[in-house]
Amino acid sequence: MSTDIVYRQVFLAAVKRDGAYLALAPKDLRNDREVVMAAVNQAGHTIKFASKVLLEDREVVLAAVARNADALYYASAKLQSDQEIVLEAVKRTGFALLHASPDLRSDREIVLASVTRTGYVLKYASDDLRSDRDVVLAAITSNGCALQYASDDLRSDRGVVLAAVNRDGLALEYASEALRSDREVVLAAIRQNGLSLQYASPEMRRDRELVVVALAPKSELPDVCI
Fold it and tell me: Of 43, 44, 15, 42, whose CA–CA distance to 30 is shortest?
């Protein structure tokens, strides 16, 4: 058996144990489909050590994102536009939407899957989808403060804003001016987090009953919208 074959077998065995060993592989083995596939099946992020040719290999990239959604970052532009690959990634972490092509940030199925996992990524959706009530509701169910990335119309939608402040009272900051003067909305917000009263209208901040509710003891909550 030749030295090259033995050397390859040693690397193949190594990346099967720990894909990170691909970082030590010579150029020819980073272009070896079997070696790279074994590495990414063990640790998806190791696709960053693969050759450019294999970053364009659909099966290799799909295997990588199935293990680690961040692997999408290293995929070729063509595969960042592949709906199946991107959907696989965003179902694992919504932040993978950042690595999707601009066209797929307008894809309703992909954006909905993304914001359901990570509401914050509504920020990276297309304008049309930030105006989509179901998409925005999915986002604020995950993170109430995703309301800040919704369209103006939806930040004026009472049902949407109530859902947001019930999830995180501090989302009141992003509601329309009219809804920051809506007593029911403000009450819902301060029941969730008393500090949200700071975002209510001056009239609501002078309401004694609301101030008492806001100051009532609650479980520890963050003082910023996250």
Answer: 15
